[in-house]
Amino acid sequence: MDIKSYILESIETKKNILNNELIIKSIKDISLAIVNSYKNGGQLFTAGNGGSAGDAQHIAGEFVAKFYLDRKGLSATSLVTNTSVITAISNDFGYEHCFARQLESLGKKGDVFIAISTSGNSANIVNALDAAKKHGIITVGFTGMKTCDMDKFCDYIIHVPSDSTPIVQESHIMIGHLICGLVEETLFKP
Predict the structure, then answer these.
(1) pTM listed for this prediction
(2) Of 24, 30, 103, 129, which sits with the fewest C-beta atoms within 10 Å of its C-beta?
């Protein structure tokens, strides 16, 4: 692996995001949807697999703890963290239902669900988005550059302009940080 080439590819992807007005608008729109959900007593859910599961936890943690501002915690739950629930659902219904079942039991109309999948085709993520839509939960997708199964279930979707899984994941966490910062600023900055 060439260190400088990798860093340059990462920088180039972020430059492409910076210059993509559709992505910038989506970040703003997603932030506003989350703000409106919180103002109406809603909550945020996140989910992903593998590295995206780590990103889902990270993003939820920023909302619950803080990003930049010292403020009250915001309700955010990563659906990847309760191993007893995940393994019970996976055993009884199949792994492809591990997030959908949680959204069916925890979510309500007006909540927001951020689904993270670099391929956009993970069955458990797509099923969770479908379940969220059926329950009136606002659906957000973070994925890679290709058209994918998530596209038809997301109210908002951000396609990171890269086909490199690690670079897509780096960009997902940047986008999650931006959204958290915008939400925090809107709700708490005097």
Answers:
(1) 0.97
(2) 24
